[in-house]
Write a structure and sequence with these properties.
Layout (H helix, E strand, L loop, with lengths): L2 H12 L3 H21 L3 E3 L3 E8 L2 E4 L6 E4 L2 E8 L1 H7 L10
Antiparallel strand pairs: 1-2, 2-5, 3-4
Helix pairs in contact: 1-2
Amino acid sequence: MTKSELITTLAKSEGIPIRMAELVVNTVFDTLEEALIKGDRIEIRGFGSFKVKSYNGYKGRNPRTGELIEVEPKRLPFFKVGKDLHRLVNADNQDVKVK
């Protein structure tokens, strides 16, 4: 699903204009982005949680040339799926067990 499909689905399901649905979706995404940039953790019960993980710099190799390179420290967003969403996604697969 793309962002525009999400906006259209929201507009249809709630009977609101596309512009209003777009405003809502953009506000939610902007708020999530701002929280992650600040380093805050976001938890949406039943869906999952977002946090930023920090990684130290290290020495690596360029796979094409084999040249030794210095990889800078970085921060990356990380998503951990919630138990309810995990169960829903795997509902058709009876062999999968959720702790």
